[in-house]
Amino acid sequence: MTATDPIRIAIVGVGKIARDQHIPALAADPRYDLAATVSRSGGVEGVANFDTVAALLEV
Known about the structure:
There is one protein chain. By secondary structure, the protein is α/β, with parallel strands linked by helices. Helices cover 31% and strands 27% of the residues. A three-stranded parallel sheet has the order 1-2-3. Helix 1 (16-28) links the parallel strand 1 and strand 2 (32-38). The mean pLDDT is 96.
């Protein structure tokens, strides 16, 4: 990882606010990379999704 690499972020809970605000803001800013989500009700297309935080942390 270098100083110019994007910061990888995981979102826990993919609800309306995440879909309407957080995900579009992350997608619009090259300094960040949505690396994973944690949600039992569905994640984000093209992004790794986990059912629990524990499962995410095992990766």
